[in-house]
TrEMBL record, chain B:
Similarity annotation: Belongs to the RNA 3'-terminal cyclase family. Type 2 subfamily.
Protein's name in the database: RNA 3'-terminal phosphate cyclase domain-containing protein
Alphabetized InterPro entries for the sequence: RNA3'-term_phos_cycl_insert, RNA3'_phos_cyclase_dom, RNA3'_phos_cyclase_dom_sf, RNA3'_term_phos_cyc, RNA3'_term_phos_cyc_type_2, RNA3'_term_phos_cycl-like_CS, RNA3'P_cycl/enolpyr_Trfase_a/b, RPTC_insert
Main subcellular localisation: nucleus
Subcellular location, record wording: Nucleus, Nucleolus
Amino acid sequence: LHSRKNRQKDWMKLIYSSSLTPSQILQDEKAANHEDDEADDDDDDFFKLQKGSILDDEHIDMTKDILTTDDLKAWGDEEMLDSIRGLFITGSHDAAEGEA
Amino acid sequence: MAHSGSLIHFSGHQYLRNRLVLSILSGKHVRVDKIRSEDKNPGLRDFEISLLRLLEKVTNGTIIEISVTGTAILLKPGIILGGPVSHECPLSRSIGYFLEPIIMLAPFAKKPLQLTLRGITTDDHDLSVDLIRTVSLPHVQLFGISDGLELRIKKRGSPPSGGGEIQFLCPVVKQVKTLNFIEPGKIKRIRGIAHAVRVNPQFSNRMIEASRSVLNRYIPDIYLYSDVYKGEESGKSPGYALSLLAESTTSAIHCSEAVSQPGVPPEDIALHATRALLDEIKQGGCVDRKHQTLVLLMMVLGSEDVGRCRMGPPTLRTIQFLRDVKDFFGTSFKIVPAEPSDASSTELVYSCYGSGYDNVSRRLA
């Protein structure tokens, strides 16, 4: 568990007192997550949005995130589908997140 | 207005909509330059000019100056007027592009807004009118804006030719309520709207069936509705789409959508929408990614008390929005992990002290 500690980032500092662009902030996170995944294979390797390379300039003012079919491929996996059962009222056993 | 006269300056065409909204709400002038100045086709696009025109229509006394090259604009906001407004949206962007900023402004108008927009009702870039109706409006209701809030889809219009028409009705409020939404609850039901215009009407059913094949494992309360539009009401171009939403026991809503693409069967479109919904659910929190900025804005405008909301990590747009909000309103958010003891959780609690925003336009009435 301790290996994941660096995932908790200081959002306030990044947003309000750094000069990083929004995409740099998010890229940084993806990089950190990636390291994490290597360090801990049990970790959910869910949606690595492979869009880090999109430059700010090319980004148009739009609300939807572009998720490609590849981004969502992980959801073809039964284990992946089962991993969020705990977030539904019918899911009984303990899940990683969303416990009441 | 207290702050009129002060000028905020930005560069680039990014995030233009939110900045215009923040300018009008705060009364601060905004100047945006270097709009695609490096582009081989520099300056504002037709949809951006159209948005400026729409903002002129819903306000009174707004002064917009556009430089000769179109690469710089200056906006001196007037009051938000409301009342009956009708606008033709260009086919380069969907109605959602125009409606999203209007939803942020309309509650603070002098008179209730009755807005008619014509154009494309569903596309890949912005929220479709279905998601705005079923997801965005309930988010606005969280803040006590509800009586008379309505979106009617009169005609559907698919890209490229559009032909759709909607009517948006919004009441005015004096102040918005403070939000305290930190319990995500558990997903209790899934709803969806499938529509298919000017194509085989069976496409709706094929999408519904494909989506159900994945979702049925989770909960029994799933209702995916096939919305039928015929003749004039179905617009000028063929197209179909599936919009999904998952609602939790505490009324947190996550949503997703996928729109027809040439050569892709309806089953694959449905699967895409379904997986995107699961992805959104997995993010957790009480508000989904597409509605972060709307909710955060209303929190800033809330009464003078601490508002709190649990959400996933901020999106690109949200990060910039938080910075822009600080420039216009001086409000910064406290953002802390929602589950400090669980290092694998990426959920965050956003809190801020509401600015006690008063509907100035209404007071003038």
